[in-house]
């Protein structure tokens, strides 16, 4: 038997050269050159595995877990000798095939605690202390007939090159503690058979790059607690098959270059105000105001076609009973000048209250300068550019570029050094991952400058067959 004190030469001198001269490994294969056996836990006892004798149970690493997630498994019954065939290595690896009645299991355990275990009740435990990689070359099917809990403590990236189909026969609940961002390159279609409710505690913004159409077959209720601003750069058309009602507790203002109000029956009522202008015509059956004695306090401006008992500032009052300032009042009995003081409130929106006659300059100034005037509406054209992918491509494109457009853009160092832009283009497959490399990859046609020395294989002249031709270099 060999030992660590004598050398190979000494063994040859002692036992002869016919004895096995391998470095410390006997011919029968049993050796312990490093003195590692028996293991410390087997000192002064049986060398049969304690796991085989049931004195210890090898288990996998079971750390981690999450609140509300049940990771418990059935308890493992200690092994009974000689049912457990256990193998253990000096570093701590173990392999067990246990046939103990009621505790049948298979265990493959790494020294770190990682491994796979099949327990007596059919449970399978897979444990990894570090990275776990699973690669399937073909199809993969996973069926869970019970409850499933999937918990990731870090980030999760799911990339599907084909279709991604999810069928849920019960409720679908999604709780997000942070932001939710969806980028949809194609169409987005949603069908809801029952009710749909949105609750947004913050602000909401919606941008539509083309036509927006909403069809409501029932009642549409629009409730706004604060202000409602409605700006349209084009035309607005409103039509009601029934009644159209508008109401305001303060003011109702309508301004336009041309305003038309047409009805089979029209009523315009007010306690005071101004109606008409210097070039307005009034025609109707009757015109009256609040009666005060035998006179009327109604004030109008323009041409009045009708009948009046008294006319103030009238040049032609053909049927006036009394005309104060009528130069040709055919039937006026008395013509006495009556001073007319300015009446507050006749033109309440004019900048100068004393000028209460709605002349053309005053009306034009009111339409152009006051809050009651005509407002020009212009929607910022940059909004469309923002909708058209400018944010997604960091202002480099407002459309989905092709390969040629990407190459043209990246000729500019400004865009080529934009790591955010290039990362998006690489992720979409529009740009290669090695675009930044200035040296082309080796394709087998580039060699060193010194060349390689080779010998020819074809004979030259009358040289003998064992003499090859001259050597040469391949550059």
Describe this structure in words.
This protein has seven helices and 13 strands. Strands 1-2-3-4-5 form a five-stranded antiparallel beta sheet. A two-stranded parallel sheet has the order 6-9. Among the domains are: 36-64 and 71-130, Nuclear Transport Factor 2, Chain: A, CATH 3.10.450; 312-341, no CATH class. Helix content is 11%, strand content 9%.
Task: Summarize this entry quickly.
Among the domains are: 36-64 and 71-130, Nuclear Transport Factor 2, Chain: A (Roll); 312-341, no CATH class. The chain is built from 7 helices and 13 strands.
Write down the secondary-structure element order: HHEEEEEEEEEEEHHHHHEE
Helices, by number, come to 7
Q: Let me know the average pLDDT.
A: 75
Quote the CATH topology of one domain. Nuclear Transport Factor 2, Chain: A
- Tell me the name of the CATH class of one domain: Alpha Beta
Topology, number of strands: 13
- Please tell me how large the radius of gyration is: 49 Å
Q: How many angstroms does the end-to-end distance come to?
A: 60 Å
- Spatially, the strands of the biggest sheet line up as 1-2-3-4-5
Strand pairing plus helix content: what structural class? Answer: little secondary structure
Characteristics of this structure?
about 475 residues, little secondary structure, Nuclear Transport Factor 2, Chain: A, five-stranded antiparallel sheet, two-stranded parallel sheet, about 10% helix, about 10% strand, elongated
Question: Would you spell out the secondary-structure blueprint of this structure?
Answer:
Layout: H1 8-15, H2 50-53, E1 84-88, E2 94-98, E3 105-109, E4 115-118, E5 124-127, E6 281-283, E7 291-292, E8 295-296, E9 303-305, E10 310-311, E11 322-323, H3 360-369, H4 382-390, H5 403-409, H6 413-416, H7 419-427, E12 452-455, E13 471-474
Parallel strand pairs: 6-9, 10-11
Antiparallel strand pairs: 1-2, 2-3, 3-4, 4-5, 7-8, 12-13
């Amino acid at each position: 038997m060999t030992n660590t004190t004598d050398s190979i030469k000494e063994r040859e001198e002692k036992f002869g050269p016919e004895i096995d001269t391998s470095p410390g490994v006997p011919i029968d294969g049993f050796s312990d050159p490093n003195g590692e056996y028996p293991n410390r836990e087997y000192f002064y006892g049986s060398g049969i595995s304690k796991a085989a004798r049931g004195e210890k149970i090898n288990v996998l690493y079971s750390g981690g877990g999450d609140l509300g997630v049940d990771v418990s498994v059935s308890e493992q019954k200690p092994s009974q000798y000689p049912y457990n065939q256990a193998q253990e290595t000096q570093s701590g690896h173990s392999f067990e095939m246990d046939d103990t009645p009621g505790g049948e299991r298979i265990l493959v355990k790494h020294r770190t605690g990682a491994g796979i275990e099949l327990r007596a009740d059919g449970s399978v435990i897979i444990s990894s202390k570090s990275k776990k990689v699973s690669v399937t070359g073909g199809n993969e099917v996973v069926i869970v007939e019970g409850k499933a809990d999937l918990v990731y403590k870090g980030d999760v990236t799911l990339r599907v090159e084909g279709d991604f189909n999810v069928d849920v026969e019960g409720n679908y609940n999604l709780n997000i503690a942070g932001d939710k961002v969806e980028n949809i390159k194609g169409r987005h279609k949603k069908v809801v058979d029952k009710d749909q409710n949105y609750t947004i505690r913050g602000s909401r913004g919606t941008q539509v790059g083309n036509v927006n159409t909403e069809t409501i077959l029932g009642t549409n209720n629009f409730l706004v607690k604060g202000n409602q601003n409605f700006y349209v750069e084009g035309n607005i058309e409103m039509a009601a098959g029934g009644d159209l009602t508008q109401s305001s507790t303060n003011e109702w203002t309508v301004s336009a270059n041309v305003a038309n109000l047409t009805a089979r029956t029209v009523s315009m009522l007010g306690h005071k105000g101004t109606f008409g202008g210097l070039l307005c015509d009034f025609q109707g059956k009757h015109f009256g105001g609040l009666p005060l004695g035998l006179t009327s306090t109604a004030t109008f401006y323009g041409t009045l076609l009708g009948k009046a008992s008294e006319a103030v500032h009238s040049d032609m009052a053909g049927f006036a009973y009394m005309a104060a300032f009528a130069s040709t009042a055919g039937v006026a009995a008395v013509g006495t000048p009556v001073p007319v003081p300015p009446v507050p409130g006749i033109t309440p929106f004019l900048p100068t209250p004393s000028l209460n006659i709605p002349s053309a300059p005053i009306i034009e100034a009111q339409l152009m300068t006051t809050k009651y005037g005509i407002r020009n509406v212009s929607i910022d054209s940059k909004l469309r550019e923002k909708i058209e992918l400018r944010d997604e491509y960091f202002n480099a494109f407002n459309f989905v570029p092709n390969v040629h457009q990407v190459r043209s853009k990246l000729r500019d160092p400004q865009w080529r050094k934009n790591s955010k832009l290039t990362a998006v283009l690489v992720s979409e497959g529009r740009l290669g991952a090695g675009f930044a490399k200035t040296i082309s990859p080796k394709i087998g046609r580039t060699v060193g400058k010194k060349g390689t020395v080779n010998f020819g294989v074809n004979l030259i002249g009358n040289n003998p067959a064992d003499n090859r031709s001259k050597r040469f270099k391949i550059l």
